[in-house]
Design a protein that fits this description.
heterodimer; A: about 110 residues; mainly beta; three-stranded antiparallel sheet; 9 strands; B: about 120 residues; 11 strands; about 0% helix; globular
């Protein structure tokens, strides 16, 4: 069982907006910023969002992150077929002294 | 362009050891923490270890402390993971990644090197 909780699956149709949640606790999301990753089938994870809501250069602005208290969300607007992938959240946990990941959310574009 | 390339994976028997390596380029390597993360087949991401810029601070997942050792060589832009007493449960794709300073989480990842532990 992962320290950060994500829904195992999410889905949407092309053009829709979907959100993926990530729930933690005071020792992790309550104190540290969240990162979000996209993992396309058979590839390495790619960072989409860091420091709660910052996008690296090259990541489309269709991807946006937010955080409030011990919960975080990744929103994907204008859903495209190429967005079909696994999405993970992660942060540092001050009690465990380590990085903790969510279990991952498999996004299906219908 | 940031690049991270892992090597050293392979097939080993339970109880044996393996040393993974990672070479980075495209950024000021000595200025960054580095990380190892693994992913078992069909499973999610599991953090393994982080190492500070000068190698003076190392963090490990509890279940790996004592068996795995992370190290780095800033002169060669490389980071290593020495894995001892390997078990079948350690079979996974091992990723090396640069760490973002803000929350000590990976940002740029390599493609991974596969470790299989089987008799």
């Amino acid at each position: 069982q992962s320290v950060l909780t994500q829904p195992p699956s999410a889905s949407g149709t092309p053009g829709q907006r979907v959100t993926i949640s990530c729930s933690g606790s005071r020792s992790n999301l309550g104190r540290n910023s969240v990162s979000w990753y996209q993992q396309l089938p058979g590839t390495a994870p790619k960072v989409l969002v860091y420091s709660d809501n910052q996008r690296p250069s090259g990541v489309p602005d269709r991807f946006s992150g937010s955080k409030s208290g011990t919960s975080a969300s990744l929103a994907i607007s204008g859903l495209q077929s190429e967005d079909e992938a696994d999405y993970y959240c992660a942060t540092w946990d001050d009690s465990l002294n380590g990085v903790v990941f969510g279990g991952g959310t498999k996004l299906t574009v219908l | 362009e940031v690049q991270v390339v892992e090597s050293g994976g392979g097939l080993v028997r339970p109880g044996e050891s393996l040393r993974l390596s990672c070479v980075a380029s495209g950024f000021n390597f000595p200025a960054y923490w580095m990380s190892w993360v693994r992913q078992a087949p069909g499973k999610g991401l599991e953090w393994v270890a982080n190492i500070k810029q000068d190698g003076s601070v190392k963090y490990y997942l509890d279940s790996m402390r004592g068996r795995f050792t992370i190290s780095r060589d800033n002169a060669k832009n490389s980071v290593h993971l020495q894995m001892n007493s390997l078990r079948a449960a350690d079979s996974a794709l091992y990723f090396c990644a640069r760490v973002h300073a803000g929350n000590l989480c990976p940002d740029y990842w390599g493609q991974g090197t596969l470790v299989t532990v089987s008799s």
